[in-house]
Structures are given as C-alpha cells and as structure tokens.
Structure prediction request, 255 residues.
Amino acid sequence: MRNSHEIDYKIFGNDIQVLEIELDPNETVIAEAGAMVYMEEGIDFETKMGDGSNPSQGFLGKLVSVGSRLITGESLFMTHFTHRGHGKSHVAFSAPYPGTILPIDLTATRNNALIAQKDAFLAAALGTKLSIHFNQRLGAGFFGGEGFILQRLQGDGKAFIHAGGTVVEKYLDNETLRVDTGCVVAFEEGIDFSVQRAGGLKSMIFGGEGLFLATLRGTGRVWLQSMPVKKLIEALMPRGENAKKEGGMFSSFME
Prediction:
C-alpha cells in the first residue's frame, strides 16, 4: 500500500520547461515556495511547515524539519496544492533557471531514496519525505562547490528535480566516475561521493577544469547536469560588465 499520493504529470518545453501535475480529488502535491506557474479551478494551496510526510508529526518535529531546510538554504515552508473539487484538475510549476526537469519514480531507486543537491528539488507527491543528508567526506563540503550538505528524498511516489542545461544519466557498476564538482545533480544510495584534487599542480593551475573534481564510486544511477547555475552566472557576468562599459562609452559619445 502506497504512502505517497499517486499523481500524473506532463512536462512541456525544451530548455525552459514547465511541469504540469494532474490531480484527482483530494490528491496533493508539495512544491518549493514560488515555483507555481498556474493552477486550475478546484485547487487550494496552503503554506505549511514541513513536507507533510508524517501527518501526526507534532510542532517540535516540524520545527526540526524546518531547521533542516534552513541548513540546506531552502525556504522555511513548503506549499501544498490539493484538489478540492470534482473530476481532474491541474497545477503547474517551473524551475528558477533554464534547464531540465527530471521525473524520478522513487520506487525504482535503491531504498526508495535519492540524494540530490540542495537546490535540485522542485516538487513531489504528498508522502515524500525531504530530509538533510550529510556527506561523510568533509572534503566534499570544503571543496565540492555545491557543499557537503545534500537533500535526501524518500518515498514510494514521484518526485521531480531540476538540473541546469542537459541531463545525462549514468549507471555505475562498481565503477568510478570523476566529474566537475558542480555538475552532480543527484545519485542513488550506495554511491560514494567524495572530492579529490584534480591532477598535479600544473594541471590544477592551467588545466581550466578547476582545482578539485567530484569522485562518484559504487553501483547505482547518477544524474549529471551540463550547466550548473553557478557556471551560468559566471558565463553571463562578463557580458553584463561589457554591456555596462559599452553603454557608458555610448552615453559619453552621445554627450
């Protein structure tokens, strides 16, 4: 018997995608605050503490859950969207930056759980538990770019995470994969995640690949993103600065 609500979905678009969730009466989907694009008639929304995976959870338990979200840098609250009408109705969400929305069936993952970067979660069926996951390798926190605090999603329903650019899914069979630290989106339990120095001193300084690389080792699935938001910001910043300079030169010329 499922604990999570069974929801249907569609994903629209290519580079800037929209996730549309179809809800039956009394079905609920949880999402990050501010992710909603539109909702149809019959759907009510309520901002709550916690993910709602444990309805009997008291105030203290909810406070602990909120504290975990504070540590991961996420919003204090989550929004619960519930269909209160008849028939079917829809609510849609989008991610905060261009990329790919990845649907995950948690029943198809090891231990019904997924480890994801702290800003990857977008939405999930009610009953999905979100908790903090500490990486045991301290180097992953100090040098990993994305931090040593990750999110753990667990349940028996559907969850949706967001990645920047194109998503590549790799399956490791007791293998090792080395990745740019910011390009790791999520991985299954059983995968060891650590950060190691990128080659010798010369390669670290002049190689252009950064000082450290993430090392993923074990058996299970790994999801990678081609354009982490930090890389996107770095790529756009020089253009913005040049535009300001060009704008200033143009203004001086006009004067």
